[in-house]
Amino acid sequence: MTPAPPPFPPRPAATPAQALSAMDDLIAASMVGQQEMAQRLGLNVTDLTCFAYVIQAGEDLLTAGDLASRVHVTTGAVTGILNRLERAGYVSRRPDPQDRRRVRVAAVPSAVARVYALYEPHYARLDALFADYSPDEIAVLTDWFTRATTLANAYREELRLREDTAE
User: Cα separation of 43 and 35, whole Å?
Assistant: First the structure.
């Protein structure tokens, strides 16, 4: 009886330096891609990023303060972002049911559909790529992405604190 072939091809060996280089390439391609996607949608990258957070939040509507914190801009800057997104038909503002002084930001369904139509082919390709990995490998990738994001956010905050104390 012939043994069954492994379900996934063996992965080539790589060093941490090679992994960092590959990550840098992915980040650069993503940044350029985000610029192009934003332009196609009539937005700038920061506005598109805020809209992505609004979509991600779903029914748990974010406040302007939530967005400012996630994108690391002032609440004044996020007001300008929301004004642009609202004028462009991407978001609507709703009074916060617990605190009428605050507003919550909701995605406009037709805008969500436009964004999904643009991103869906790319995400389908990423899904196909993930299908080439075992559940254990996907768990490692997810862990790495999550931990690397935490490190990146912590480092940016550390840099901000250094700047604040240097002034």
Answer: 9
Of 122, 124, 126, 156, nearest to 138 by C-alpha is 126
- DSSP annotation of 96: -
Yes or no: say if 83 and 76 are a contact pair by the CB < 8 Å rule.
no
**Cα gap 152→103, rounded to integer Å:** 29
Give the Cα separation of 49 and 73 in Å (integer): 12
From residue 161, how far is each of 11, 70, 74, 165 by CA, in Å?
A: 40, 17, 15, 6
How much is the pTM?
A: 0.83
What string of pLDDT tens digits covers the 167 residues of the chain? 666 655 667 788 999 999 999 999 999 999 999 999 999 999 999 999 999 999 999 999 999 999 999 998 998 999 999 999 999 999 999 998 888 888 899 999 999 999 999 999 999 999 999 999 999 999 999 999 999 999 998 998 899 888 888 87
Greatest Cα-to-Cα distance within the chain, rounded to the nearest angstrom = 73
In the chain the beta strands, taken as DSSP E runs, fall at 62-63, 91-95, 103-107
